[in-house]
Amino acid sequence: MTSEKHWTAEAVENALAVQGLRLAPGRAAKIAAGLNAPADRKDPLLGDLAFETDPTAYALALSRCSAK
What we know:
The protein has helices at 9-18, 27-36, 56-65.
């Protein structure tokens, strides 16, 4: 049994304010929208990215970005 939680921008701001964190204007609404998004929804952009397809790709990317 799962219960749905609906976050509001005000709830996000309050939860973070208790921890001493302040957000930029409008940021709490974006966070709340992300928290309220259905978990079974597939991200259309993530499917097109080739993450972890080749274990050597990470090392290659690091070697290209490192200072010489």
